[in-house]
Amino acid sequence: MRFDREKLKREITLWTERANSTQQNLAKHIGVSRQVLNRLINGTRGMDIEIVTKIANAIGVEPSVFIEKEQVADASIYVKYKTDRTPTSRRIAVYMGNYISDARNVFGIEVNTDDIPELANGTVIVVDEKEIPVEGDNVVIVKENLEILYGTLVLKRDKTTAKWLFRYKAKNNRAYETRIKKTDKVLLVVGITFKREARNRTVFDGV
């Protein structure tokens, strides 16, 4: 995971001006020496999520502002999820260790029926609604009637056309292929995980 030191410098400067304080006071507050904080800011010392989280908490911002966004997808993620079965665009939180990020397009859909034979009840399918799936990707299809199907995106070609199809297993454990309709919502699957309760918030284990 890489960190954006320019943002770190900027946020610390803004905090010292706003709080009428100094970097030395900030260093004391987060439990490091002034020299260590200097080396962090100037890039001569490596940054880890623990120190980044301490700095962020001390100056009142989310740790995510210091993390280069393209790195987020590579981390182990824990995702809050919407309790109804239809994903909608809204702000949710992604937990990576102590790190909290904004992920407006990432959702967890809890499997609470026997309609998906590959996945047990309580499994959570983590999806990204902004990413465009390609052939071979695992996807979730949300139908107009809110039925949820889990399977693989396939491209069937004949002499004249190429049609996008969705291959999935039904609860009778038989495999099916079906055309994707314009009214279907196609969501890229980015992880499979399980729900657990922790400190009064729902997070997930093992993405």
UniProtKB/TrEMBL annotation:
PROSITE patterns named among the record's database cross-references: HTH_CROC1
Organism superkingdom: Bacteria
A GO term for molecular function: DNA binding
One Pfam family it belongs to: HTH_3
Domain HTH cro/C1-type stretches: 22-66
InterPro entries referenced in this protein's UniProt entry, alphabetically: Cro/C1-type_HTH, Lambda_DNA-bd_dom_sf
Protein name, entry field: HTH cro/C1-type domain-containing protein
Species of provenance: Gallibacterium anatis 4895
